[in-house]
Amino acid sequence: MPEHKILDSWALLAWLLDQPAAGRVEALLERAEAQTLQLSMSWLNAGEVYYMAARKLGKLQAEELLNRLPSLPIHLTLPDVQDILAAAKLKAHYRISYADAFAAALAQRENADLVTGDPELKALDGIVRVDWIGTA
């Protein structure tokens, strides 16, 4: 069974916007395409990527991303009641956004590394395994 990692919105946006961590995310996407890595993301985080892309790049490019998303080697998961409650519990105990809580809850559920450069999520190292791709 291949290694499993969860992308948060920060990671996918870094790739989309060609930010410094884009190369690291691209390498993960390539491994997922080659089926040596399983990448997953919550639909809630995909929605966050959409609205942030719409703000930064415009609605047209955000729509293009949304249309392209199913062709990327990322397994998108729709949160169920248990996922929503797990995210709510994380949000209640840690200073993270609600969307970030969904990424962390998915990483917990799947026993997978959480790929991020979001400083809020760095604080969860130990609660989930954080694969840090941000700046030091």
Short description:
With 136 residues, the protein is of the alpha/beta class. It has helices at residues 9-16, 22-33, 43-57, 59-68, 81-93, 98-110, 119-122; strands at 3-7, 37-42, 74-77, 113-116, 130-132.
What does this 3D model show about the protein?
By secondary structure, this protein is an alpha/beta fold. The protein contains 7 helices and 5 strands, in the order E-H-H-E-H-H-E-H-H-E-H-E. The chain has one domain (3-132): 5'-nuclease (Rossmann fold), CATH 3.40.50.1010. The protein is 55% helix and 16% strand. Strand 4, helix 7 (119-122) and strand 5 (130-132) form a beta-alpha-beta unit. Helix 5 (81-93) packs across helix 6. The model has no long low-confidence stretch (mean pLDDT 95).
The helix-strand sequence is EHHEHHEHHEHE
* Strand order of the biggest β-sheet: 3-2-1-4-5
Overall number of domains: 1
Question: What percent of residues are in strands?
Answer: 15-25%
* Average pLDDT reading: 95
**CATH uppermost class:** Alpha Beta
Q: What is the count of β-strands?
A: 5
User: What is the architecture at the second tier of CATH?
Assistant: 3-Layer(aba) Sandwich
Determine the N-to-C terminus distance: 31 Å
CATH homologous superfamily (4th level) name: 5'-nuclease
Q: Which parts are unreliable, with pLDDT below 50 for 5 consecutive residues or more?
A: none
Structural class: alpha/beta
- Give the fraction of residues assigned to helices: 55-70%
